[in-house]
Predict the 3D structure of the following.
Amino acid sequence: MALFCPGGTILVKVGSSHTGTQSDWARYWRAGRQPIEAMHAHFSSHVYHRHSHDSYSFGMTETGAQAFTCRGGSHVSAVGMVMLFNPDDPHDGHCATGQGFTYRMIHIDPGLVTNLLADARGRPSGLPLFPRPVAADVGLAASLSDLHAVLTGTSTPLEQHEHLTGTVARLARHAAFRDGGPGPAGHATSSSAARAAMRMRNLLHDCYASPLTADDLAEAAECSRYAAYRAFSATFGLAPSDYQRQLRLRAARRLLGSGMPAAQAATEAGFADQAHLTRWFRRVYGVTPGTWIQAAR
């Protein structure tokens, strides 16, 4: 299975994007036609707002340490450790030491991961889910670092595919498998609360760009506003407002990727203006929309 066509799409390196202090920088790469992205960054003052990705996200800490919360617990990723985030795994992130931290991150579409594993094993393997968000595996960290270098360098399509397949197979050793898509990444909830949360989620997906109110969500959930908020946060690990903003950011990324001007994309995705989109884009993804767009040019 070819991942990159010879002479076709490649990952493009972009310049530094300063976020916060002068010591903060981030470089981003995107494969324009393939569901894979990569980032190399150093942050000392930047703080990630709580968010999730619709992809698998694998991070390797190179210097310092990053602290974050995920799945109801606090974690630290130090040098040689690997961060393992499932799709829709809510998390945040900030510096755990005064010197900041440097890390590499790779985002891979869930469908690509399952296809690579099925190809490697010769049979369907179900969806890999990582039970722990941090792994102390120096070998896996080295493998991910090598993959990052191969994807963002001048390697051939065959080398890219081989490194990606090998790294995904190595990642699978840390995963459990199950059929179907990833479930909500939150605390255990009652069946009635989970059903209420799903009704709110459906409304948010249908109307993410609209100015929904707490009463709108409570009506959809068929309970009080307080009960609706608790049910949603417990089921999905995010407040309804954060979840709606996340949907708007993902919509803005799709629109920006299609070539739509940033101001128009911001409005269509539900943001007040382009500045509002830029501010939240940086808080969640670590780079500005302009840097993200240029990464695939």
